[in-house]
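Hi there. Long-time user, first ticket. I'm pasting a complex I've been working with (about 646 residues overall). I'd like to know whether the download I got is complete or cut off, because the file seemed smaller than I expected. Thanks.
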Amino acid sequence: MRQAGRYLPEYREIRARVSFLELCKNPTLAAEVTVQPIRRFGFDAAILFSDLLVPLEAMGLDVVFTDEGPTLPHPVRGAGDLARLSTFVPAEKTPYVLETIDRVKGLLAGTPLIGFAGAPFTVATYAIEGKTSKRFVETKRLFYTDPPAARRLLSLIAEATKAYLLAQVEAGAQAIQIFDSWLGVVSAEDWEDFVFAPTAELVAGVQAAGVPVIYFPNGATTILDRVAKVGADVVGIDWRLPIDEARRRLEAAGAGSPGKTTCVQGNLDPALLLGPHDRLERVAANIVERGGRQGHVFNLGHGIYPDTPIAAVERLVHTVRST
Amino acid sequence: MRQAGRYLPEYREIRARVSFLELCKNPTLAAEVTVQPIRRFGFDAAILFSDLLVPLEAMGLDVVFTDEGPTLPHPVRGAGDLARLSTFVPAEKTPYVLETIDRVKGLLAGTPLIGFAGAPFTVATYAIEGKTSKRFVETKRLFYTDPPAARRLLSLIAEATKAYLLAQVEAGAQAIQIFDSWLGVVSAEDWEDFVFAPTAELVAGVQAAGVPVIYFPNGATTILDRVAKVGADVVGIDWRLPIDEARRRLEAAGAGSPGKTTCVQGNLDPALLLGPHDRLERVAANIVERGGRQGHVFNLGHGIYPDTPIAAVERLVHTVRST
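Hi, the file is complete. Here it is re-exported in full:
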């Protein structure tokens, strides 16, 4: 999950001076907020500070950040809109991301850096809806009324994102996380029909560079058997399902190699950081135990809440390290 | 799912004259909109038109309907707020619901009527958040900071809802559906710790009146093995998981009786009604086949979209009846 954020006073201080968009596009500041959580908490890896919509803007769509979050004034609603999108050369269109990585590498003393991007489906929902959605009506309308256009859109996003992530690896990212934030609204049938192929293609394309890929199918553990076939090195698990059960479902579906532990990441409900420490510690320790102490990247099951107390994060890190 | 709604011109005509709240509390109009879809489409059963928050208001909380939906100006945020809530006598506090049922029974020529209420967790989220939520921060904060208060709240809602639903049965409802619209945000651990007991208690309490109970754990098919233990006669399945897989997961968890088909309801993604008829027909027919032609109540996997064309619903009914 994103580690930087409004729960950190040092992040809020920077955000008081620049907009979210300026922050994403300013390598000095983006590198600074990427490294802030590492300085404060000593996490085992840093994750690049950026936004899901960066590649979409680079592909040619207008992106405007408003108080309600990012919006696209001219969303993709049909095959005719696809002409406005193209793959891009990251060094030309998103040099600030690559420069951010370069700067982060200079600031981090040995802590690995995880690059990131949104998964084709999630990025496509922004392209189609034009904003964060709740019911994803327009996305599904496009899927059902013009399946070839929907598939071309996802495939184009996968191709552009692959180049974008390979450039991140070249710039120094040592692993890649692909966020499928909105996968939870997809049926098993639509997964097969639209989402699986471009997602698997993207994962394989990044793995070809020799880095591990973490795929996070948020809200979609009910189709974990299908998700297993994407072939990610690590599958991120939200907080809904115990992590040992998630691993068993992945393994039953043929994920991982025989005799080797299937790698999972997660899965503490970030809301636990808002409550008392005794419960937080008990649940976190339980997750560590269920994770089996190998092939498990301890993490939150979703993004951290803005009003999370610093002391709770400190306590969590201590609990995970000492369990 | 609710059958009445803005997709029907005859419903919009009534709503142009009265507010949503007035509609819920006016037995003549509420009965009329309950019966409208039956007249138009000839569904096999009608579902009572009402609102999830009716019992909460009857329990003593102020409910105000705004343009953004129902809001509670004084939500429940701690143990001290529980004193404002109590169980209630349906004939005294919600006579309009019982009168609506009575009128519906007079209007329906043999079509069964399904009564309904929200499940304890879902109703509790409205009591705690004060409105429709996205991340349910306050709900979880209460769960984690004061578990006994959270449990008392859910238990109180379950008790009040039981009386409310038994009164619906006495008034003539021949089955009951319990909607857990927001269950998808609950972890398996919190399900065990907070949600399971009051939900199972409510289901059993209504079953004691001799009517079948449909429980709809929206967005929570990943914990269907736990949900099975609620003991509902029918489990509603959203559109995320094929209905035959859902039934197999329920049966593997011990739902139903040996040798008898486990009953499921669902599970067409309502977004399919917005697309072309050929896809709608193909997916609907597939659901009928997977449902196995017994122990399956064909239904949408979630609420119908306001801009659903009438012709699509007609086509769907035809497809289901002729498959």
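A couple of notes from our side: Chain A has a mean pLDDT of 95. The radius of gyration of chain A is 19 Å.
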